[in-house]
User: What shape does this take?
Amino acid sequence: GAGVSQTPSNKVTEKGKYVELRCDPISGHTALYWYRQSLGQGPEFLIYFQGTGAADDSGLPNDRFFAVRPEGSVSTLKIQRTERGDSAVYLCASSPPTDTQYFGPGTRLTVL
Amino acid sequence: AQKVTQAQTEISVVEKEDVTLDCVYETRDTTYYLFWYKQPPSGELVFLIRRNSFDEQNEISGRYSWNFQKSTSSFNFTITASQVVDSAVYFCALTSGTASKLTFGTGTRLQVTL
Assistant: This one.
């Protein structure tokens, strides 16, 4: 079946702009995760949804970052007033409840 | 808090050599899961294995094997008869207690040459 998909694959924006990154999980997976991976590092957790609600948002770095999953499927990660330090690969993963997470290809965000 | 340490930043081997990637973890929880993921140059993380804290049996899957030792908090990964296609960054990761989020190590870059 289809895996996790993420759009866009690449996003270049200017400092101060607003961006939205989209994640389509594997069909039937109730859990959805966002991670951020900087160059040469392992992925770092941002937020976790179980269904429509954010079960754990402890990894969001500040209030410029926000994520939604209104219908319990597709999720959007929103970043306001982007900064150069936000440049990274943003990874989405999905899983059945408390099971293995499967990752999408990521969105590479570059803030100029 | 949980932590995963992958002390080997980069390993280079010649094809057909065996190679072991080390992973040491820290957690206060008695229930946890350990994972290995592969990240090839294309960038997508590929799941390799998941083990729970109550199952210390070693596992073998083709050329891959995993050695889980609670006494040393280690979950090492061995590739037997390495191939060029094994070249990638390998990440060890942990979920612990009731938390579902993965805590990753910094990864080990494996380069297999002819």
Q: What stands out?
A: Chain B has no helices and twelve strands.
